[in-house]
Amino acid sequence: MPATPAWPPKSAPRLFLAEELGEGRMVTIDGAQAHYLGKVMRVREGDAVILCDDVTGEWAARVTEAGKRDVTLEVVQQLRAREAVPDLWLCPALLKKDRFDLILEKATELGVGRIQPVLTRRCVADKLNHERARAITIEAAEQCARTALPALAEPVKLDTLLAGWPEDRALFFADENGGDNAAAAFAAHSGAAAILIGPEGGFDEAERAAIRAHPQARTISLGPRILRGETAAIAALAVWMARAGDW
């Protein structure tokens, strides 16, 4: 006899919802998410959808009604509890929109716990569309099967960030002028941490001096080459996750 197909299938669409989920609850989805399910994924009554709520974790749901403007689902069973997220913040200077979009997407995929955008003197951009940025992190989390979303903060000026920095969190500063080997520094550290990445033109000398003087700052090197801001952020996160994170 043929084996019974696994349920829900791995191909089932994934969505993050704002409301908390639970077994037996009925959920109605409208707007862009309903369009995605109905017009893009073409779900029909009985089809499986995987839902996450960033609180309880991941759930399998079954479509009970697929209308033209909304989709109703019944939450059937929990698949996974909300994952434990490494206590790592990424503090990237704002970049041009497409490059910062890449940071948002890849930082989410790599498992960062919080993204704190930073404004520096050489930043080309000075604003962040928070709603759009949040949508990028949600889409990335759906794609990579995360059950927890990274916290996304509003941009702050560098001096404000340093002034309010928590005493119990190490601040790894990726300095193009050199520092300790990043992999070795990450492996030797335990506890809360953050990685600070500069803008396209780098930090100016006054900013670099202020960061180096901060008691929680630890200067690191990402190698012999000058990296773009988005490349530095992705590389640093990958190294951290491999040496001290959840890889």
Task: Explain what the structure shows.
- This protein has 247 residues and is α/β, with parallel strands linked by helices.
- The protein has 2 domains: 14-81, Hypothetical PUA domain-like, domain 1 (Ribosomal Protein L25, Chain P); 88-243, Alpha/beta knot, CATH 3.40.1280.10.
- The protein has helices spanning 31-40, 97-110, 130-144, 158-163, 182-188, 205-213, 229-243, and strands at residues 14-16, 26-30, 48-52, 57-66, 70-81, 88-92, 114-115, 118-119, 151-152, 156-157, 170-174, 180-181, 193-197, 217-221.
- The strands form 3 sheets. A 7-stranded parallel sheet has the order 9-7-6-13-11-14-12, with helices on both faces. A 5-stranded mixed sheet has the order 1-3-4-5-2. Strands 8-10 form a two-stranded parallel sheet.
- Strand 3 (48-52) and strand 4 (57-66) form a beta hairpin.
- Helix 5 (182-188) packs across helix 7.
- The protein is elongated.
- The two termini are 39 Å apart.
- The mean pLDDT is 94.
What's the rounded overall pLDDT mean?
Answer: 94
| Shape type | elongated
User: What is the radius of gyration?
Assistant: 21 Å
Query: Helix tally?
Result: 7
Assign a percent range to the helix content: 25-40%
Unreliable spans are none
**Reading side by side through the largest sheet, how are the strands ordered?**
9-7-6-13-11-14-12
